[in-house]
Amino acid sequence: MTEASGAAAAALRRWRPTLSLVVFLALASVLLLPLLSIYFLKVYQNQLIQQTEAELIAQSAVIAAVLHREIENAMVPDTALGSGVAPATQAPSSGPYQPIWPTLELAKKSVLPPRPAASQPPTPADPAFVALGARMMPDLVATQKVTLTGFRLLDPNGVVIAGRDEVGLSLAHLQEVGEALQGHFSAALRVRISKHDQPALYSISRGTGMRVFTAMPVIVRDHVAGVVYASRTPSNVFKHLYEQRGRVALAMLSTIVPTLLIGFLFHRTITEPMRELIERTHLVGKGDRDALHPLRRQGTREFALLSRSFLEMARRLDTRSSFISTFATHVSHELRSPLTSIQGAAELLRDDIDAAKPVMTDKDRRKFLDNIIADTGRLTKISARLRDFARAENPVAVGSTRLSGPIAQLHSAFAALEIRATGELDTLLRISEENAGIILSNLADNATRHGSSRLEISAGRQGHSLRVAVIDNGEGISPNNRALIFDSFFTTRRDRGGTGMGLAIVRAMLEAHGGAIRLLDSGQGTAFELTIPIAEGAEC
Length: 540
Known about the structure:
6-stranded mixed β-sheet; 12 helices
């Protein structure tokens, strides 16, 4: 017992999360999912950057092709070009196609500082390239209006020959331009310098302040004849969210409000009723009978059934406790009378034996001994009744039987009583033959003690039970005693050996098997109606 108590105490001391904590964490997780998803949009931002790079590659390839044609057709052959490019670099052995795949990623090491300003070139651009840039300028402006891409056309030395700004200045000192002047395509992701104030939402992601730059070389006669330098700010989901901040706030509110409603629903239907039920268990354990009334809030249907079952069990235990206390008082009273009588008679006999001159005659001694024997018999009968009552309260024997068997035993046990049995006596009942015999024998004994000469038993089905009427022609029960006949130790025949336990045993036995007994109105004698459940398989 000590080890079990210690194990229970240790289990109680072990930390376990409360239901409120579990519900709170679940709701908090649901609530944080939309917020955490913003950080996962970084992957989508990477995709937007590479999409922007791919668009710049496609646009630059078209402009480079036009520029290549213009140089081939309009330039004189002796125009100075840039660095030479090996033919293998221009046309790889993999085939006629030369795809350029986007490679930029939003990583810390790949993000360059803002683009440096253009510088003065060591030598001005060749007039032929300046004239070419002037011819290409309208095409660049028209393209920029549609694509929102900033273009710069550079000569073989990195000097700007076409563009909205910086014409005549050099960009050769830029990393990506330097690689392009060597005949290699290059792309860079640089920090963007905006002319406008950035909204607060921009601080959530570095991708919001980035700009993609590409430098595509134009190869003419195996030499770098120029560079198409393009740039554009990638599309940004956070900017869109900021522009739609009213709808975003409404969406967040539509997430928070249902979450709070769900939490309130959990609190009202589960957490609060459970706390009240736990409090009730403590009060019931302290003996507070006022704690047996229904809960203020029942919560869910399952929890309502649980709370009602618990309180019903507590009420039954309380009733059982009260019954045991009352029953112990009655038993003490019933046993005290014969024990006191036996003790008094024994003391008188001992005093007469110890006296110098006995005064009792043999007749007196026999009278006292007869009283002792009678009281001993009463004690024996009471103990037997108590044993039957305990068996009725906690029936051990299980099984099924038909009334015809126990009724046949009544004929031999109560030969002086005329017993008539009719009805569905062969219906299989959910009670053992021994317990059914205890019920009928107590009713027959009760009828005999009240002057009955005839006992009528009739049985008939009603639903899932068998209704059995037991009627005698005895003295009957007075109106004042009708409410007391099922109480333990209540009897009007104590002088004839009655113990007052017979009907209490019958009721306890029937209730233990799911049945019942009630007293019927009768013009003559006493009439009882028994309800006994029918055994499974015999209900059809």
